[in-house]
Structure formats: structure tokens, C-alpha cells
Amino acid sequence: MMSDIVGAVTVRPARDADIAGIVALVNSYAAEAIMLYRSPESVRMTLHDFVVAVDSTGAIMACGALKEYSPSLAEVASVAVARDAHGLGLGTAIVAEVERLACKRGIDELFALTLTPKFFESAGYVIGDRAMYPEKIRRDCLKCPRRIRCNEYCVVRQVQEAIAVAA
Ligand SMILES: CC(C)(COP(=O)(O)OP(=O)(O)OC[C@H]1O[C@@H](n2cnc3c(N)ncnc32)[C@H](O)[C@@H]1OP(=O)(O)O)[C@@H](O)C(=O)NCCC(=O)NCCS
Fold first, then answer.
1. Which of 48, 72, 108, 125 is most exposed, with the fewest beta carbons within 10 Å of its own?
2. What is the mean pLDDT of each run of 10 residues along the chain (167 residues)?
3. Residue 66, domain CATH
């Protein structure tokens, strides 16, 4: 059954028709304070940075985004998998697709802030220090209500290096 679900899934860059599904998925976790809320407008403005996993009907099962900070640094952001599809490898597939996008753009270093570091570690990330990313702190953390008591881990991967080793 699990392989049936995954076999019917396509992972690809996001399109206009995916916006409502991305917003619904991300905001379902934002309602539990696991992710930050996204408006349809904010997703539309950065749609070229999003990747999605869709089922055979086009329904959004997972999403993720590449958030660029400099020509060599970006964040793996907005990674979410529909609750009924957890544990099937879709999160891993989304991170890999975001990494492909990063490679296409020549970005070398990826980081994420996450409540589930084990998930990223299984995808090759290592625990890092968020102080290494002052741009992130300026852009998002200073506006975040949890900035004083943040319980997210910073995880990091040198993506070009990892691809060179794998080749
Ligand atoms: C975290 C999340 C993206 C994982 O997606 P998924 O499709 O279930 O993950 P996968 O099936 O690809 O799992 C890959 C590995 O991560 C591990 N993993 C997944 N979720 C985990 C969790 N919550 N805690 C610990 N490990 C986890 C799996 O056990 C698996 O390990 P393995 O490689 O040793 O078998 C998904 O649970 C989710 O959408 N959570 C809510 C939103 C969220 O927390 N997003 C991350 C914000 S950065």
C-alpha cells in the first residue's frame, strides 16, 4: 500500500494551480505552531522557489522551498508532508528536489531551522550553529514570537560537496 501511494506521486517544481494546496498544507502546521503561516500572495511571489509532490489527481501531498540568502547560501524552508502520507519518504524526496534546485542555481550551502533534526540528519545534514546565519536571524528570527525561547535546531549541508562525493 505504501509503495502504491509513493509510486503514484510526482515531485516537481510548483505551478500556479498548486498555490492553494501549498498554503493549506503549510498553514495546517502553522495552526499548531510547527511552521510559520504563509499567505497565498507570499507563496505566489516566491512560487519559482517551491517544489511539490502531487498525487495522480494533482492534490498536494508535500511541499518545500529554497529561500535564497546569497549566491552561495540558501535555506531549505516550508518542508511539509500531508499527515496521512508521513513516513513514506516524501519529505526526503522534497528535500532532494530542493537540493537539485539549489545545485541548478549554483548554491553550495544549505541550512534549515527545524523541530525535527533527525529527519534532516537522515538526509545528510549535520547540526550547525544558527549564529553562522545572521541574515536568517535578521530576516525571520527577530520577527518571530518564539525568538527568546526558540526550540528549533539548525542543520546544515554543503550540497555541492555532497554531490561531488556521491558522483
Ligand atoms: C518532518 C516531515 C517533513 C517528515 O516527512 P516524512 O515524509 O514523514 O519523512 P520521511 O518518510 O522522508 O522520513 C525520512 C527519515 O526521517 C525520519 N523522520 C521523519 N519524521 C521524523 C520525526 N518527526 N522525528 C524523527 N525522525 C523523523 C524517518 O524516521 C526517516 O528515517 P530513516 O531515514 O532512518 O528511515 C513531516 O513529518 C512533516 O511534514 N512534519 C510537519 C512539518 C514539519 O515539521 N516540517 C519540517 C519543518 S523544517
1. 48
2. 64 98 97 90 98 96 96 95 96 97 95 95 94 79 72 90 68
3. 3.40.630.30
| Cβ(51)–Cβ(13) below 8 Å | yes
What was the pLDDT predicted at 47?
98
Cα-to-centroid distance, 88 and ligand 1 (Å): 9
Q: Which letter, b or e, does each residue of 46-65 get, where b requires 16 or more Cβ atoms within 10 Å of its Cβ?
A: bbebbbbbbeeeeebbbbbb
CA of 90 to the centre of ligand 1 (A): 9
Phi, psi of 165 (to 5 degrees): -65, -40
Nearest CA to ligand 1 atom 28: 119
The CB of 115 under 6 Å from ligand 1? The reply is yes
Atom of ligand 1 nearest to the CA of 119: 16
Q: Which tens digit of pLDDT belongs to each residue from 50-91?
A: 999 999 999 999 999 999 999 999 999 999 999 999 999 999
Domain residues for the domain of 140 are 2-166
Number of domains the chain is built from: 1
